[in-house]
Amino acid sequence: MSKRRVVVTGLGMVSPVGNNVETSWNNIKNGQSGIGELTRLNKDDFPATAVGELKDFNIEDYMEKKDARKMDRFTHYAVVSSQMAVKDANLEINETNANRIGVWIGSGIGGMETFEKQFETFLNRGYRRVSPFFVPMMIPDMAAGQVSIALGAKGMNSCTVTACASGTNSIGDAFKVIQRGDADAMITGGSEAPISQMAMAGFIANTALTLNKDVSKASRPFDKERDGFVMGEGAGILVLEELEHALARNAPIYAEIVGYGSTGDAYHITAPAPGGEGGVRAMQQALDDAGIKPGEVGYINAHGTSTPYNDKYETMAIKEVFSDHAKQLAVSSTKSMTGHLLGAAGGVEAIFTVLALKDKILPPTINLENPDPECDLDYVANVSRKADIKAAMSNSLGFGGHNATIVFKSYDE
């Protein structure tokens, strides 16, 4: 059975570098960081104070206050970004097509902020004062659920929870839904709002976050001085669409999604497998699924968290998969500017990968000042550059040993 071709027709985003795709991409191309000092919480309570917060984002600019109060922050981000993506795709969802349009949005930790606030209410005022919306606000699938309700999409509705691979797994899973014929379009990506008391405390406790007090340089993937990631928040949503369906309605086409790989390390709850072995298999799976050779890939948006093990092992994995071509590959980590958006990272970074292909511009890895000798690839250090790339890859790796890779190509008629 021949596989149906799937293309990207819409993009939507809220991120630390901008509250829409255009602003975010312009800042990424220009190497402008969205990372700053923690403001949402009391920064004196934590040794890690560098975060990637959204700026000037007011949910009441997008929906009624009474509706917003029934959703966690991560769902706000998903709904707003999905509305942007559907508008960008010029996709009208109505009674004639709603059953063939689905939603697949991942989140790593869901409504952590809601959980904290409602538990405090329980402790101080008892169970009768806990909100009846507590559970549907907290659970990670509610971003997909609320997007479906807001947009009227009645097709497959799902949520992938694979820690920091959630967004990429969701896009890959949605891609396969269309490819096998179960939907004509999918609204997909990831959303996360992890800048909360317990999320910050938990990641500090397992030594994952950077303690660098120079917040402008705290996220420094592949740099010898890296010491942990920076927590970020936001959402990245794509509209994926079956090619003939997109052409029939004259939809804008950004790129074609052609490959997906997903593997497990079976090694450790937080540490990546030595040498990035699981990532090797995910990348190879994605290439095999796409039917392209390693030498055809011109750019990789790396997971690139700015943690000691991840950056070293991801570099090793890329070398294993791409062999001699690894030295010709451009690799960059946009987390140097956004921080790590956990379950939303794959959605946001998929958009940056698609736009790198479309605009033929490689986003930089900023703060790469003292290269780690063990990280010796071309990381597009500090300044973006033009490059005529035809295929690009995005990697996401999560706690629990989850590895996910997606491959995009320039759209050829």
Write up this protein.
- The protein has 13 helices and 15 strands.
- It has helices spanning 21-29, 65-68, 73-88, 112-125, 134-138, 142-151, 166-179, 197-205, 243-248, 277-290, 308-322, 335-338, 345-359; strands at residues 6-14, 36-37, 50-52, 101-106, 157-158, 185-192, 231-232, 234-242, 255-264, 299-301, 330-332, 361-362, 385-386, 391-398, 402-409.
- The model has no long low-confidence stretch (mean pLDDT 97).
- Helix content is 33%, strand content 19%.
- It has 2 domains: 6-248, 3-Layer(aba) Sandwich (Peroxisomal Thiolase, Chain A, domain 1), CATH 3.40.47.10; 260-409, 3-Layer(aba) Sandwich (Peroxisomal Thiolase, Chain A, domain 1).
- The chain has a 10-stranded mixed β-sheet with strand order 5-4-6-8-1-9-15-14-10-11, with helices on both faces.
- It is an alpha/beta fold and 413 residues long.
Largest sheet: 10 strands, mixed
Which structural category fits the helices and strands? Answer: alpha/beta
Number of helices: 13
Strand order of the largest sheet: 5-4-6-8-1-9-15-14-10-11
Q: What string gives the helices and strands in order?
A: EHEEHHEHHHEHEHEEHEHEHEHHEEEE
Distance between the termini: 21 Å
Low-pLDDT runs of 5+ residues are none
User: What CATH first level of the largest domain would be assigned?
Assistant: Alpha Beta
What percentage of amino acids are in beta strands? 15-25%
Query: Please, what is the CATH homologous superfamily of the largest domain?
Result: Thiolase/Chalcone synthase
Mind telling me which CATH architecture of the largest domain this is?
3-Layer(aba) Sandwich
Mean pLDDT: 97
Work out the count of structural domains: 2
Please estimate the helix content: 25-40%
Number of strands: 15
Q: Look up the CATH topology of the largest domain.
A: Peroxisomal Thiolase, Chain A, domain 1
Radius of gyration: 20 Å
* Shape, per Cα inertia axes: globular
